[in-house]
Amino acid sequence: MFKKSIMLVFFLTLALTVVACGNNSGATSGGNASSSPSASNSTNPSGSVKKPVVLKLGHIAVTTDAWQKGAEKFAQLVKEKSNGSVEVQIYPSSQLGGDRDVIEGMQSGTVDMGLVAGVLSSFDSTYGILELPYLFRDKTHLEHVLYGPVGDELKTQLLDKSKVRGLSFWMRGPRELTTNKTIASIKDLKGLKIRVPEIPASVDAWKAMGSSPTPMAFNQVYTSLKSGVIDAQENPLALIESNKLNEVQKYLIQTNHVYGYVLLAMSDKTYQKLSADQQKAINEAAKEATDFENKLVFDQEDVLLNTLKQKGMQVVQLDTTQLIEAVKPVHQKYADKYGKDIYDKIVNTK
């Protein structure tokens, strides 16, 4: 019995050894490594999935604003035109900071893209001219400037000076004044504490009109109006409505003092890292998204005005003749300081 037990153990040990050798033969002898998923990925690159380039786009408007809708359209078009190789992620409501923060981020490469406006004048002083009240006669005049030779010149100059690449100008509704007292003439502006963007041309223009301008980032406006730090502010209807400024302001004064823009811009550092095909996709998407956003902006102007009326704002029509006269010396100052040539080109654009 003892011998039989010894023999049984011997044969069991032998059998286990044979099985173990058979299992190890593929790893040790250079056998078919495709049985391992990780090995398959390393030796068959065509079977791997390449991750898309992710671009961060920041802006100050809320998610219901036309800027956001335009940005969403842009992101969709970029994905389609790049065959999924580029993905744009949108950060609204100042999640990446105010306009200045976004621009500085694009310069350093920590922010890839942004929708930015007047604060551009702090990075290229020529843009300060665009912020002069009553520079543009109307919406059509602005369109002819932005989408003509002057607009191309402005984008080229911005790239040279700040390394921020202007992809396309988007239109905005005209800027209007909101207050807690009615404004019937230029005399009523005297001493009015009005928030303006951090733009020297805006500050000087509102001083010339008799008010007391206070430069401030937009994300501080609501609380400053509520606390009484400022009495008034000026912005397009879209920002007034979407940021609920009707809750802290009683009057909407239709001044139409600035027909403005927002620039869809991109860090040149980021742009240069993309392939030629990806760059083409970005540029084509920007152009198509511009048409989409511009139509959206002006389709909703009457709707926004009626909405603000329904929410309790009193709309005041103002004769702006005196305001136009008051800012003429400011026009001359900034034309002489930042470019008489481009100022004249803007004024003379038909």
Please explain how this structure is put together.
- This protein has 350 residues and is of the alpha/beta class.
- 50% of the residues lie in helices and 17% in strands.
- The chain has helices spanning 2-28, 37-43, 66-81, 99-108, 127-130, 139-146, 149-162, 200-208, 221-227, 237-242, 268-273, 276-299, 301-310, 321-326, 328-338, 340-348; strands spanning 53-58, 86-91, 113-116, 164-171, 175-179, 193-196, 212-215, 232-236, 251-258, 261-267, 314-317.
- A six-stranded mixed sheet has the order 7-6-8-5-9-11.
- Strand 1 (53-58), helix 3 and strand 2 form a beta-alpha-beta unit.
- The termini are far apart.
- Mean pLDDT is 89; it is low at 1-45.
What key phrases describe this protein's structure?
350 residues; alpha/beta; six-stranded mixed β-sheet; five-stranded mixed β-sheet; 16 helices; 50% helix
Q: Provide the low-confidence segments as ranges.
A: 1-45
Tell me the span between the first and last alpha carbons.
115 Å
Give the fraction of residues assigned to helices: 40-55%
Strand count? 11
Query: What is the radius of gyration?
Result: 30 Å
Taken as a percent bin, the fraction of beta residues is 15-25%
Order of helices and strands: HHEHEHEHHHEEEHEHEHEEHHHEHHH
Strand order of the largest sheet: 7-6-8-5-9-11
Overall shape: globular
Number of helices: 16
The profile of the biggest β sheet is:
6 strands, mixed
Task: Give the helix/strand layout.
Layout: H1 2-28, H2 37-43, E1 53-58, H3 66-81, E2 86-91, H4 99-108, E3 113-116, H5 127-130, H6 139-146, H7 149-162, E4 164-171, E5 175-179, E6 193-196, H8 200-208, E7 212-215, H9 221-227, E8 232-236, H10 237-242, E9 251-258, E10 261-267, H11 268-273, H12 276-299, H13 301-310, E11 314-317, H14 321-326, H15 328-338, H16 340-348
Parallel strand pairs: 1-2, 1-3, 6-7, 6-8, 9-11
Antiparallel strand pairs: 3-10, 4-10, 5-8, 5-9
